[in-house]
Amino acid sequence: MPSYLKVRAHVVDFVNKIKKLGKDDPRRIMHSFKVALAITLVSMVYYLRPLYKGIGDTGIWAIMTVVVVFEYTAGATLSKVMNRGLATFLAGVLGIGAKYLASLFGPKAEPIVLGCLVFLLVASATFSRFIPHIKRRYDYGVLIFILTFSLVAVSGYRVDKIIALAHQRLLTIILGGATCIIISICVCPVWAGADLHSLTVSNLEKLASFLEGFGDVFELPSEVDNTNRSAERDRSFLTAYQSVLNSKSTEESLANFAWWEPGHGKFPFGHPWKQYLKIGVLTRQCAYHIEALNGYLDVKYKASSEFRIRVQEPCTKISFEAGKALKELASSVNLFTYPSSSAKHIQTCKNAVEELRHTTCFWFEIQPVAAWSYGMRSFEETPYRMSFRSRVTEADFACRPDIAYQNRP
């Protein structure tokens, strides 16, 4: 193939990937325009002379603030803006205080005292980053505090107008941060809370779809061709649940960013986002059980036809009922309703588990199916715990759906 055709093929492939990226989530395109708009607006500090006279060369910090703090979701942007603004203010005040405190010891001792103060505060701030709560929500603010305090304290030793320097730096950061917040919230906002809600519901639905499909697959293969067709049919849903196993970091990030967001849509201010993390933990427990069960789909059972016939019905029933229970739980989370009908599916699933236990009590020498049935019994308890952990009554949901999740343990 000629070289120009190879280059053309690479260009076409790159363009197709870009198109797919935009089609998968059109909000990414809008986010790009929002960042460009924010940069353009804060650049007016240099373009308009009245603004330039008020801020001066420190206006570059406004542009740098937009580049650094403007994130994809509104919660992430608010988190960085608040961290950067508060850290800059606190570091500026402490930096000025450290400079004047050191100046009281005279010209000779001033650099020594100032160096000791910088050492102590920077060491303390760095150590605070190991505290889990600070690491989760204020890590970026601590970094900005260390940077700003060091700049103000060290610059103050050579620069006379230290207060003006700190004031201009804080003003430009407020300008850039306010621009980011306004554009992020007012122009096609992307809410981390809504994404977390959708992700939680989607994960539950993926597990429910797998179990319902798993019940269809668990059938008696009479011929090799039937077995091959069944295995081929499995592949359409076997990989859907795997994304649930790796969703922990995404859920934690979204929950952290959602905490910073104001009330929006059906999510009021103070919405209990931590409950989504609890649901996520239980959902991954279900996914791990499913992963274990999935390992037995391609196993060629050495059991007799009689045994397979006896375990087929309870195993199929367990899969269907567990899938229906998870689907009901997903619907209740999505609509903020009480999962009343899931109790019936869970009880039916428990009865099928007991039936399977009695069926296989004399057949444990058959390892693959025995392990499969044990995995089913273990999995059945997980959706039960998900429903049982909600101690909210139907009356709570009927009166105030917005606080239903807050009453959960």
TrEMBL record:
<keyword id="KW-0813">Transport</keyword>
<dbReference type="GO" id="GO:0015743">
    <property type="term" value="P:malate transport"/>
</dbReference>
<feature type="transmembrane region" description="Helical">
    <location>
        <begin position="86"/>
        <end position="106"/>
    </location>
</feature>
<dbReference type="Pfam" id="PF11744">
    <property type="entry name" value="ALMT"/>
</dbReference>
<feature type="transmembrane region" description="Helical">
    <location>
        <begin position="29"/>
        <end position="48"/>
    </location>
</feature>
<comment type="similarity">
    <text>Belongs to the aromatic acid exporter (TC 2.A.85) family.</text>
</comment>
<feature type="transmembrane region" description="Helical">
    <location>
        <begin position="138"/>
        <end position="158"/>
    </location>
</feature>
<feature type="transmembrane region" description="Helical">
    <location>
        <begin position="60"/>
        <end position="79"/>
    </location>
</feature>
<dbReference type="GO" id="GO:0016020">
    <property type="term" value="C:membrane"/>
</dbReference>
<feature type="transmembrane region" description="Helical">
    <location>
        <begin position="170"/>
        <end position="192"/>
    </location>
</feature>
<keyword id="KW-0472">Membrane</keyword>
<dbReference type="InterPro" id="IPR020966">
    <property type="entry name" value="ALMT"/>
</dbReference>
<dbReference type="GO" id="GO:0034220">
    <property type="term" value="P:monoatomic ion transmembrane transport"/>
</dbReference>
<keyword id="KW-0407">Ion channel</keyword>
<protein>
    <submittedName>
        <fullName>Aluminum-activated malate transporter</fullName>
    </submittedName>
</protein>
<feature type="transmembrane region" description="Helical">
    <location>
        <begin position="112"/>
        <end position="131"/>
    </location>
</feature>
<keyword id="KW-0406">Ion transport</keyword>
<keyword id="KW-0812">Transmembrane</keyword>
<keyword id="KW-1133">Transmembrane helix</keyword>
